Amino acid sequence: MAQSGGGAAKRASLSGDAGGGADGLSALPDDVLVHILLLLDSAAAAGRTSVLSRRWRRLWALLPELRFPVAPAPHLIASALASHEASLRHLLVGFDAAAAAPDSAAAWLPLAARRLSGRLTIQNRIKSESAYGGETGASFQVPCFEHATAISLDLGFLSLALPPAGVLARLVKLSLERVRFAGACDLGAAVSSRRFPCLRKLTVEYARGLPNLTISSESLLEVKLWHLNGLQRLTVVAPELKKLKLANCFAGRRPVADISAPQLVVLMWWDTYDRSSVHFGDLPQLKRLTAHGFYVYGRHGYESATNRAFVSFLERFQAIHYLHIALTYPMYIGDSQCLMENLTVLPRLKTLVLFLQNKGHAFGPSLFHVLRKCTGLKRLGLSFYPNSELEAQSACPSGCVCDQPSNWKTEEVTLKRLREVRIIDLEGTDHEVAFMKRLFIWARKLKRITLTYRSISLGKMKEVREKLLCHAMPETHIGLTKYTVYE
Hints:
Blueprint (H helix, E strand, L loop, with lengths): L1 H14 L14 H9 L4 H6 L16 E4 L5 H10 L4 E8 L5 H5 L3 H7 E9 L14 E3 L8 E12 L11 E9 L5 H4 L10 E8 L3 E5 L5 E8 L3 E5 L5 E5 L9 E4 L5 E5 L7 E2 L8 E4 L2 E2 L1 E2 L3 H13 L4 E10 L8 E2 L9 E10 L6 H8 L7 E6 L4 H6 L25 E5 L5 H13 L5 E6 L4 H12 L7 E6 L5
Protein name: F-box domain-containing protein
InterPro entries: F-box-like_dom_sf, F-box_dom, FBL15-like, LRR_dom_sf
């Protein structure tokens, strides 16, 4: 009984309601207590602290952030927003009741629009598009967030209706992921300078219902467009744009695009290309270029046509500081033809990064062909696509021709300026080591090699390093580093 009484007294002291006076925690200033509540994982958890004492009952209403990772009933979100007293710098709502989401959101989104002064994040936890069976009929109606600085919507392919009017004068970032644009929604008109005068970064990923997209903005600095299923025509007029990244939007259709961005520094065009229908205008500031992959083997069909478009795209650029391309191999080469001779030109380069989807095949011949065309390189990057266990067992059968022609083993490439090489997931196979031995001969002044491990253990990477040290020049440093998502 004595222990039970002591526990009750301790709880009374913590609550600040005991006769002995307030506890030290509740005596802290409001801003300190608010900071403590922000460490909790949700608004609901912060709200539950109100049971501690009368002193704590209104603290949650002072939080500058409200997070509902798993949304409660819509009326509870609306009630929380109506009772909240502080300006919101971040509101996060996650939900998984997909069919009810548009109607549910209508109960609290208008309140959020009036309260928010910072970032809005809405996440549909359902990941499969098939969960909706096509059009749902209801649209996720977004009101005008006049004071928001960033909006991120991941709707799980629910239909989205943007506000037809209003100015989002403070919005800097807009991210729309897995959305289905409702009706005749004009995204381009919505994000124009007239309505989004301060927009700096626009991201649209895995979207449906955008056959034509016209973006005209005097403020945009970055645009990222990925997997816009059904896109037929793209127009971008953005005099201050610095980065444009587009991938898998035209889905094999003839691309039609007009890009006016004279300040562009970074261009990623990971899609089909047609010189007659894709126009970039002058790009005098361009320094970094990422282009669609090149098929090392194939037949006179899709692979050859894709390679011709790839070469046509690169021919547009005479010199570039940084080029990132992929070399793609089939699982089974069989009687496929080697297509590397079709890669006839590369721009003058300082840095070349190659993404090798070689599926276990020897890559020496193809890299030898590429390096002969860019002997002025200063930096080289090689990134190996991780093979699945099935691919490792099936690739490169006996008698495979992937190591032909073998002239790379004897002929010279002069890489006098090459000083740095970075390699991700080098496994140390016999063929990889043979290629590195040749690279040490071609690049006599190589100063540094960085081995980055992503899907390979540190112990394995140390073994690879020891193999290379046996063949490297004494002055060549070989270091190890772990891959990070920021690379």
